[in-house]
Predict the 3D structure of the following.
Amino acid sequence: MTSFHPAFERTASGPVNGAWRPLLRTRLVGRAEPLFIDTDGLRSAASLWSGALVWAQLLRAHPDITGVVVWQTERLALMQLLVAALWDGRTVRIEATSRAPRPDAWCLDGRQVMHDGQAVCRLGDGGWPDLAGPARLSTLDMLAGAPMHGDLAVRDRQASHGDLWQDLGAPLSAQQPAPQPASGMQEPRIEVLEPFDLAALATPHEVLNDALLPLLRCTEVWERQAT
């Protein structure tokens, strides 16, 4: 049996802090599936987890970040930010596309991360921040991070990570995996998503339902090409 850092065991046991961690770890760490497929190619669960590690490194390197404003971005980049935010208890605020965020806000803006009107880093092809030098945050560091009391806010509608877990995550965690046939191959569970439209998401539940939960309940998630 794999042994994890004691800090992970402590934080994962609480009803709010770390509630998402066992599910995210089970579904994403070191796994080929679920797969996210869009017009740019496909990303494995392990790739998504690697992107979340880089996001977590960026957030931890800047203690002044109390929230990240998401503004006109891609589904893949938002997926990875959400994994890092849920894991570490970070606050993420989703802004409607009709108004720009404050210049002094930390912001995921299209293909870059902005702060004080300046580009802090660019997003790589995988949807994560392209940091200078190699990422130094290991999986063990990610497990040992002390979570904060974060929330997800969309157009002034706010929900804590603990509340979202009780509403959305707990039923997912309770689902038992389907029994595998004698061949050892599991029947794929596929979900096809419409092209990403950040402006159409009005509540924290809608954001998680659109950008993350399909990956946690399916083996393949396809994004339709915009017409």
In short: Residues 45-61 form the longest helix (17 residues). Residues 54 and 134 are 10 Å apart (CA to CA). The chain has a mean pLDDT of 77. The helical segments are 6-13, 21-28, 45-61, 75-88, 139-144, 161-174, 204-211, 213-217.
